[in-house]
Amino acid sequence: MHEDFKRNIHILLYRTLIDCPVAFIKLCMFWSSLLILVFIHIGLVNLYLRRPWKYFLHTLLNLLGLYILVQGIYFADRLRVEPVEGYARAAAIVFQRMNAVVLVLVLLLESLSLVFYYTELWNYVAKHPTVRSIKEGLDYLPTGLLYYWEDGALMFANLEMDLLAQKMLGRSIYAVGNGMTLEKSIREGKLSEGCKFMDRGPQLTVKLADQKVWQFHMREFLIGKWTVHEVLAYDITEENRLHEEVYIQYGELRKIAGRLRHYSENMRELTHEEEVLQAKIQVHDEIGRVMLATKRYLAGAQDAPTREELLPLWQRMMFLNHTATEPGKEENAVRTILEVSELLGIRTEISGKITSLTPVEREIFMMGARETLSNACRHAGAQHMWISIIKEDGGTTIKYQNDGKVPKGEIIEGGGLSGLRKQTEHAGGHMAIATGNFFILTIFLPERGKTDAGKYGSTEKYGTVGGTAISGPDC
Length: 475
Prior knowledge:
Distance between the termini: 140 Å
Radius of gyration: 52 Å
Largest sheet: 6 strands, antiparallel
Order of helices and strands: HHHHHHEEHHHEEEEHHHEHEEHEE
Strand order of the largest sheet: 2-1-6-5-4-3
Shape: rod-shaped
Strand content: 15-25%
Helix content: 55-70%
């Protein structure tokens, strides 16, 4: 039995094709033909992907070997039933003597090489973009893409742009067949029912029936000598929702700002009334002091003031009474200041356009004029007063200057100057007092919505400025 097994193995290993059954030969021919078809497919794919020529040459060599193998098997099988002449007879005789095991091993090696080629090709396709993969990627972008030639012929349109065309025109972009038609319809607003054109700046924006908002960007560029038109569509639904929310909030903020302005105006009115009340109280107190001093003078009391001392007191009382009881219009108020300053013996010059001042600036201007005239008369003994109004970028500067005695002691801002500073800062401005050769009070009032902190925070020309106390008598 052992000898029979060895004999069967020997017969199997050394059996040639001429000894093999017809079915075996037919199976080998089919196997070889199938390998040829698969290698042809691999070669065509390599050409399509434009891979290096070495991959194509490897495939070509395998195809050549398989072709010779198939021809040899075919002629070897044919020689058994009919005579064969020429080179076919020589090939048939050679393949008839081929060992069947060797033939199977060759086919198995070709099959393994085929598996290797397919694996390598699959890895290459997975790692390198191809025309098909690029097209698939563009098709599934959330952005609409459309490219067409100058005559309108479509070059490329992805699925998102085709879907947008169906929603806006009621037809597929491929059914329209012309890219210019879509662009013209968007520009002219000729859209399907439920779609509407929205004004969102230089770009074209369309709101679809499903409430989604798309923005279209269009441009032209050259490919060689050919002009290509590009249309890009972006989904800005979320951005549009945020824009509408911001617009609504902006409207609400405007209402709040209006209420705040109204409140601020009421506060200014209340402050003005408070200032008028304080001025009236000051007038009442001043009249009382002047009347008592005059009574002592008329009675000939020993501690009574002289006539020269009473005259400035009566002048100040008349000034305070005039400014506190006759506000009138700005022209009347300015005329009053000039008249009272003349009565006080102070020549006042006003430069700049008073009519250019806002109501708030005008009110602060009048308040500053009253306080500086009063102090120039009471403490400085001034002969001249210069008031200037300067309109400049960002705000208005008002300066009050007199030629009286410069304060030497510490200036403590009393009710008048402190009230003026409070009113100025309430309006967003700044007040500064400078002493040098002259006494100068400067007020800066910014335009509405602007601030200029520290514009007069310090000055080297005049010395200490701003909130620091300056030498001089009590004001």
